[in-house]
Amino acid sequence: MKRFSLITETEARCLAIDEVVELAPGGHVTPLAEDTLRSRRVRVVRGGVDPDAAARLGLETAVRRVAVGADHVGRELIGYVVRHLRARGLAVSDLTPIGADPIDYPDVAAAVARAVTHGEADAGVVADGSGIGSAVAANKVAGIRAAVLSDVTVARYGREHVGVNVGTLGATLVTPEEVATILDAWLGATIREPRYIARLVKIARLEERS
């Protein structure tokens, strides 16, 4: 792994897409370099955090495949999500049951969550009335970190601070236009701070002890 005390725009442009590099304690990344690193999906490990921890948690995986699903309330919204994600060039698998019958959100949330944990998708999106029920259900699947993506700030923090790998949406709370910016903020963010990764390790240990 390459190690830097300073990453400028010049160094950032020389790094490979999806590369992982280490920033020495007290090191600095210039603002222009931050933009380039984000666009090249380069993950910066700060302060010598064990890179294996990030790999075990699935934090190094670039999102290219997304599993989505919805209950009957979120069906229309998830259709918009599918179109938006595919327009971004992502492969999308829609796990929403076919038919007009009511759909129980725990079933769909579990299917999407399992697609992520089984490696069939890099991330998941589930829509129901509020997004809350689907988040609760998805979080029952070991290895899933689900949260309601209620706005752009929450979406970005969810990815940067908690490594959220399943985002849930409330079809009665957000518009399709809002969803577009929310998903873009979520997918464009990356968790880099070692303190956040260390906390995720503790969360994973909670699953092992329960």
Overview of the structural elements:
The structure is a single chain. The chain has 210 residues and is α/β, with parallel strands linked by helices. It folds into two domains: 3-48, no CATH class; 65-188, Ribose 5-phosphate Isomerase B, Chain: A. 45% of the residues lie in helices and 20% in strands. It is built from nine helices and eight strands. Helix 4 (75-87) links the parallel strand 4 and strand 5 (91-94). Helix 5 (105-117) crosses helix 6 (132-138). The longest helix is centred in the C-terminal third of the chain and has 16 residues, at 194-209. The two termini are 35 Å apart. The mean pLDDT is 91.
The geometry reads as globular
Radius of gyration: 17 Å
Percent in helix: 40-55%
Question: What name goes with the CATH superfamily of the largest domain?
Answer: Sugar-phosphate isomerase, RpiB/LacA/LacB
Number of strands: 8
Q: Kindly estimate the percentage of residues that lie in beta strands according to DSSP.
A: 15-25%
Q: Helix- and strand-based class?
A: alpha/beta
CATH architectural type of the largest domain: 3-Layer(aba) Sandwich
Distance between the termini: 35 Å
| Overall number of structural domains | 2
